[in-house]
Amino acid sequence: MLKIENLHARIGGKEILKGLSLQVKAGEVHAIMGPNGAGKSTLGNVLAGRPGYEVTEGTVTFDGANLLGMEPEARAAAGVFLAFQYPVEIPGVNNTYFLRAALNAQRKARGEAELDSVEFLKLVRAKVKDMGMTPELLNRAVNEGFSGGEKKRNEVFQMALLEPRLAILDETDSGLDIDALKQVAAGVNALRSPDRGFLVITHYQRLLDYIVPDFVHVLADGTIVESGDARLARELEAHGYAWVRERRPAEADA
Amino acid sequence: MTAAVVPFLESMREAAAQARLPGSGLAWLDAARDEAMRAFTEDGLPDQRNELWKYTSLRALARHGFAARDDEAATRGVDIDRLLLPGVDGPCAVFVNGAFRADLSSFEELPQGVRVRSLADALRDDAEPLRFLLAGRAGDDDDGFMLLNRALAADGLLVDVAGGVRAGVPLHVVHAGVAARAATAWHLRSLIELGEGARLDIVEHHVDDAGTGHLANLVCDVNVHERARLDWTIVQRAGEDATLLRRCQVRLHDEAALDLHELELGGKLARHELRVDLAGERSRFDQRGAFALHGRRHVDMEVLVTHRGRDSVSDAIWRGVAGGRARGVVHGRILVQSGADGADGSFYNKNLLLSPDAEIDTRPALEIYADEVKANHGATVGQIDEGMLFYLRSRGVPLDLARHMLVRAFCAVALDGIQPAALREHCEALLAEQLPELAE
Asked: Dihedral of CA B262/B397/B379/B338: which sign?
């Protein structure tokens, strides 16, 4: 589904990703872990198409198509979703209005019929209930005045509504207390399915107790230095990231 | 002024010479008009050395002459439904090319105690009560257009709400410009008086056919007496080659209130000079305004709020959006006079530039001569927030729609309070209509 080969990317002239390769197949949950500054968020932003990131080398294909050549909205319509590390507050844009515009734009781009407001509200109400969200949040402006936890939950709620094929969670666990973390994880787990892939970017192993990944990759200095299964995350928790560098001096220096 | 023939000035002098204005023959009125025309001939049009005209050049205007009147203004067939805004059925006063149209207007639904007349009618019936309005002492800051208005005003609207009377239904005031044989200039002088404890809603609509090239020079005095309240919504859609100059002088007495909403969308040059005098204690002025300009439109908001009464409050928020080669000017001044202790004034203006050739000049200013005063102001000019734009797009919202959503959101604070809901929705729709062109 997602195939990243030798990806190099920089922002503001500084190279952040230095030859990253990764493949995510439908139904798989991949966790990307790594120390601060390793390039985790850059990876998510490059995949979603945030302006300002420059890809200097390598390829990314999504279902065989060149993802890097697509506008952000086209990537979304193709099924790529980024849950933001810092969801943006947009005063004056009503949440429900925004979500309907987003969903219908995606449906239109895919050649599907748009939902009218009745159909849409029905869908939204069901998803709100599933996510345990406060329905009032829908009537507010996008993320405006939301607590940190509400913002993160809203990201997962949007994901549930838009039903992407590849969901990228960028440190969705950061800033969450344990209850919120469990709720967010439950929301994600409910979306796991054989035809959906996940890229879970996190600094801590904690989230992976609740969203158990099929694969864990350690990202350091812009490249993946170690891959394994869920056990790798626990070893990292026990030994710290320095442990990876010690084990793999050759690759880390390459 | 140079000695060269300036078509604008010439056409105004001609207009004065051949004028058959209502009230002609009354010695005091003739004298006042002559005096104003003399002063205008001397001063000419304001130029950019005048602080209040710093960002609005009249050089292009000066090269145009205007017809003194549209002889068919009183009889032209117009599509009245196109001129009326949705949500404000009921009494309306309609002006076409500067002439009051009794045939298109109706005041039947206004309650007893609300009197609406045209200035021309009032001058014919009994001019004397208008002496103070039309022949009052010239102000120190009367500019060329004010003088022209004194010299040439042939009509206008007189509204009088008796003390304690609540109008109940909004009064719709429509100023329409329709194509005439030549580009025409007209000058209207209006007066709105609210007696003690009176209430009135006014919805004012400026709307033009394309390609008229007219010039409207409107002056309005507003007097809101003790505990009276005026709710005023202005929707300005002047034509892209029309010039609209408005000066509005409001006085608020003790505990009087003016709540003003303004949506400015058009005009080759549209200027609104608003003077609000918070003369009374605990008088209050609220203003929410937005302009959204594309093409080569030029809107100039010149606002002066003077606090004279103790504990008087002013609260103004303006949003400006400019695309294409459009130009927006916002000059918001708060002056707190000595004695206005406890005054609380604020003027905030945020602007968005949507194209590299658009320009917005904003200058908030405070002058304070009283104690225990709260006064705040702020102004910004920026571009669409890239972070917000990416967030919307990352969810699948196409770039154009995402930009539209953000511009609408940006202006929302100015439109949210418009009543009734049907009018607010219409204003939102008018703004949305501008958006595709704004991006160019």
From this structure: positive
In chain B, which residue's Cα lies nearest the Cα of A93? B409
d(CA A108, CA B141): 58
User: Are the C-beta atoms of residues B44 and B6 closer than 8 Å to each other?
Assistant: yes
Long-range contacts, B364-367 (Cβ 8 Å, 24+): B364/B330, B364/B332, B364/B333, B364/B334, B365/B331, B365/B332, B365/B333, B365/B334, B366/B333, B366/B334, B366/B336, B367/B333, B367/B334, B367/B335, B367/B336
Test B410 with A105 for CB contact under 8 angstroms.
no
Prediction pTM value: 0.89
Interface test with B, best of A80, A88, A165 (most B CBs within 10 A): A88
Give me the helices (H) in A10-52, please. Answer: 40-48
Number of domains in chain B: 1
User: Which of B386, B396, B408 lies closest to A105 in CB terms?
Assistant: B396
Handedness of CA B127, B132, B136, B140 (dihedral sign): negative
Rg (CA), chain B: 21
State the best of B319, B389, B391, B413 to mutate against chain A, taking most chain A CBs within 10 Å: B391
CB A77 within 8 A of CB A105: yes
DSSP A135: G
CA of A221, closest CA in chain B: separation in Å?
Answer: 26
Rounded CA-CA distance B391/B399 in Å is: 11
The reply to whether B130 falls in a domain is: yes
Is there a domain that residue B129 lies in? yes
The complex scores an ipTM of: 0.95
Dist CA A153 CA A160 (whole Å): 10
Distance CA B141, CA A92 (A): 39
B106 C-beta neighbours (distance < 10 Å), count: 15
Which of A73, A88, A97 is facing B388, going by the closest CB pair?
A: A88
C-beta separation of B302 from B272 below 8 A: yes
Which pLDDT does position B4 carry in this prediction? Answer: 56
Determine the structural domain holding residue B125 and report its residue range.
Answer: 3-278
* Residue A22, token pair as written in the block: 């990764």
In a domain, residue B415? The reply is no
Q: What are phi and psi of B364, to 5 degrees?
A: -85, 150
- Whether residue B148 lies inside any domain: the answer is yes
Contact B423, B234 (CB under 8 A): no
Each residue of B160-178: pLDDT tens digit? 999 999 999 999 999 999 9
Tokens of B309: 């009464």
User: Block means of pLDDT (10 residues each) for chain A, length 254 residues?
Assistant: 96 94 97 91 96 96 96 97 96 93 96 94 90 84 92 93 96 88 90 96 90 94 92 85 70 44
CA max distance for chain B: 72
